[in-house]
Each structure stands twice: as structure tokens, then as C-alpha cells.
Amino acid sequence: MESSTLARLLEPEVYARLADIEYRPADELALASRLRKSGLDPDTAAALVSQAALRLAAAEKFGPFAAGMLFTRDGLAQATRLPVAAHHAQRMLASDPQVIADLGCGLGADTMAFAGLGGTVEAVEADEVTAAIATFNLRSLDTVTVTHGRAEDYDLTRASALWLDPARRTSRADARGNATRISDPEAFSPSLSWAFTAAEQVPATGIKLGPALDHELVPPGWEAQWVSHDGDVVEVALYHGEARQEAGRNALVLGADRAVRVHESEVPAEDEDRIGELGDFLFEPDGALVRAGLVTALCAPLGARRISKPIAYLTGDRLPGGAGRALVRSFRIRDVLPAGLKPLRRALVERGVGKVVIKKRGADIVPDTVRRRLKLPPGEQATLVFTRLGEDHVVLLVDEVTDAA
Ligand SMILES: C[S@@+](CC[C@H](N)C(=O)[O-])C[C@H]1O[C@@H](n2cnc3c(N)ncnc32)[C@H](O)[C@@H]1O
Fold first, then answer.
1. Residue 385 exposure: Cα atoms within 13 Å on the Cβ side
2. Record's SUPFAM superfamilies (predicted)?
3. Residue 151 CA: which ligand 1 atom is closest?
4. CB distance 297 to 283 below 8 Å
5. Which CATH number fits domain 270-401: 3.30.2130, 2.60.40, 1.10.10, 3.30.70?
6. What's the topology of domain 76-263?
7. Cis ω before 190 (30° cut-off from 0)
8. Which residue's CA is the closest to the ligand 1 atom numbered 25?
9. 61, 76, 78, 192, best to mutate for ligand 1 pocket (most atoms within 8 Å of CB)
């Protein structure tokens, strides 16, 4: 967004219009035209419509707070979901820091949680328009200052805790118009090596990164926490100093009503890491456990075993109870079907299956192509899992077991 557009949006009589817009994607053109007819210039009308669209999308991350905020498309894409930001705040406030520096605060989601839960925050943002929007979004929190500047220029002696969420996208868009992700940690902004050096200068540090982070990059003695929220793996956060709870890797599975944590110390020794016979159930571990490399930590508590060494599915004979339920999706195995296309088709037709949902791990297939080539006649819908049992390729016919089922 241009700074002149933001300035116009912040004019009280223009901003007031935003609350009255009932945005529906199908009405976008009509909406812009109505706003122009009411006397607004075309750029301002377009900016209001785009803010209304972003507010609607932002409710998923920010809940009711979205209705009092402004956004950029990139800023919203990069913002932490509020329940996850609240978790960051609990972690970062645990050592009771006098000042948390949030360097690269974006639109302000993490800062909002830090200050909302009682912290004093010095937020810094390198992009001028984003910094101005963050100032606006955080206007009701009187323990926050937002400065337009670079993390690298911030005086770290001011902070008793440091929060970093480095930018990991280029401004270049891919074919679908989405910003492309950067994989080289030295190209993050600020860079990962700068972040690690800065962490040595403050009592407590948290660094939010993408969940695909190479485990080798986690420095010894740090805590690396992979987090999923409502089934989506959202980040790995690295904690150091007073912000660290327990060194090493852990996975935190956040849901609406519970948080379950699994630590690497729960992973069995190699010889206990059994590959076993297929049981009655297939378990798909939460993505945070998969990314953290902690799938086998579930074997003992779930009474489960691996189906094949490199594959992140487990099998067992009973459904998980208690906290274990939050850590896996469970499927009842109805049948083991042949992996070849012709015998598979025959088996599905015999069972009256006409539509398939395809999941896969350890199988080199393209689900859409398989679905097309199966050319099934009309019939029931079923879920197929293309995977391996030991070394053998198999297709499992499964039914998901949900709490309601
Ligand atoms: C991933 S976003 C932060 C999102 C934020 N934690 C939130 O939840 O809303 C990273 C932000 O860092 C800013 N940034 C990039 N390089 C920076 C630097 N060197 N100093 C300060 N900010 C920087 C980007 O403009 C971007 O807004």
C-alpha cells in the first residue's frame, strides 16, 4: 500500500466508512461503484473495499479485534494467529521482563499479545507503511511504542527480552501472486546469524521461524518448539536464556480447549523403535510432531508401532484415549488393497466405491492422476491411503474415526 493511500484511509470521515461496509466477494464491483457514487475518488473507494476484504479474512487470525484494525495483504499473511501470539506472550512474559523488544513487528499481532497480557513493548518495523499501520493497530495499548527502523539498529541494552519474527518472503510474487518463501536463513531479514548474536546480548529471546527449519540450525542448548494450531503446523520457535523451558526439540499441539506438549526425551531408544504388523487402526501424527521428528515418541503412550521406518504413520489395535487423541488423526483400517491400478480398481468396484479421497506418505503417486485413471463408476465415497508396510507398497481403505463418531 502507498503511504498516500494509508493517509487517506486514516482520515476520520473515510475510516468511518469502513465500519458500514458489509463485504461480500461477489459484490465487490458494485460496492466500489456505490462508494464512488457517494463522492469518493476511485483509489480511495478501491482501498476501502480492499480493507473490508482483508478485515473479513483477518477475523480468522485476529477474531473480533480485526474489526478495529487495518491490514496489508502481506502483513496479514505473515501475522501470527492471536491464540499462538498469546502462547508467545506467556513464554516471553514468564521471566517478567521490563521491556520486550519486538524487532520486525509487522502489523503487530505478537506485540498486541505481549502488551495485552501485561508487557511493555518496544516494537520496531523496517517498512514505513507497515510501521504506521502497526501504530494504528496498537493505538489502544499504552505500554507499546512503535518505531520505523531496522532491527539491526536497535540498542539491545534497552531490552530485557527480545522477540524476532524475521521476514522469510521475497517481494517477488510467484505465478499465483503469492510472495515466494526464502529458504536460506542468511537471507531472512534480519538474518538468522544476526538473531543468534543478538540473543547473546539479552536475558531472554524467542525467534519465530518456518516449521521446515533444518534441525541442524538449532544451536546447542536452545529449545526448539514446533507448534500446530487447529491441525495446521504454524511455526518453530527457538527460545534462549530465560525464555527457554527445556533445551532440545519439542512439539506443542494447540487446540481450542487444550495444549499438549511432547519432548524429544520421550523418543524411545532405536531398538525399541519397532516396525510392526498392521493393527486395526492407522494413526496420522500431528504435523508439529512430524516436523519436530518426534513421531516415535507416540509409540508407547498410544500402544502403537511404525508401519515403515521412514514413514510418519503409526498403527495400533486400540484408539488413543486422553491427551493422545489430540496428537493424531485416527483411521479404522477396513481393508488392505493391492497397489496396482487394475487390481485396485477391481477391488474398489467390488466394494461399491465410486469416489475416492486419496492420502499418501511414502508413495510416489499424484492423487489427481490416480483418481482420473481409476475411472470409477458412480458409488460410495471412500478414503484411500497409499503408503508402505515395511518395504511393500500398499493401499489402505480407511474410515476416519472422529470424537463424534
Ligand atoms: C514475519 S513479519 C512479522 C509479523 C509479526 N510477528 C506479526 O505477528 O504480525 C516480519 C516483519 O519484519 C519486517 N522486517 C524485515 N526486515 C526487517 C529489519 N531488518 N528490521 C526490522 N523489521 C524488518 C518486515 O517488514 C515484516 O513486516
1. 27
2. S-adenosyl-L-methionine-dependent methyltransferases
3. 20
4. no
5. 3.30.2130
6. Rossmann fold (3.40.50)
7. yes
8. 127
9. 78
